[in-house]
Write a structure and sequence with these properties.
By secondary structure, this protein is an alpha+beta fold. The protein has 5 helices and 3 strands, in the order αβααβαβα. The termini are far apart.
Length: 100
């Protein structure tokens, strides 16, 4: 299953390249990109359905931690390839705008 490579999708994928092997939770990504969860979470779901991400819930005691468990997302090999394409497009666009 494919997903459209919108500008927002490119941004989210590129955000994973900060630590491409790491796990990232939605709220952290939303804060870094300055977007709302209502925009981000549907993208994460579509990217997971496309096979670009995997996700899992952290195993914590919510009472002891004082917060709800986080769902962590991680790039798959296919997602890493798409993220590289997204990063290259973003850089190309920035270079083009710098020359204007």
């Amino acid at each position: 299953m494919g997903t459209r490579m919108t500008g927002r999708t490119e941004q989210v994928l590129a955000a994973f390249l900060v630590d491409p092997l790491g796990e990232h939770y939605g709220l952290d990504i939303a804060r870094r990109l300055g977007i709302k969860g209502g925009t981000l979470y549907p993208l994460l779901i579509r990217m997971e359905e496309a096979g670009w991400l995997t996700s899992s819930w952290e195993d914590i005691d919510p009472v002891a931690e004082g917060r709800r468990p986080r769902r962590y997302y991680k790039l798959t090999n296919a997602g890493a390839a798409q993220a590289s394409v997204a990063r290259d497009r973003i850089l190309h666009l920035r270079e083009g705008l710098a020359g204007v």
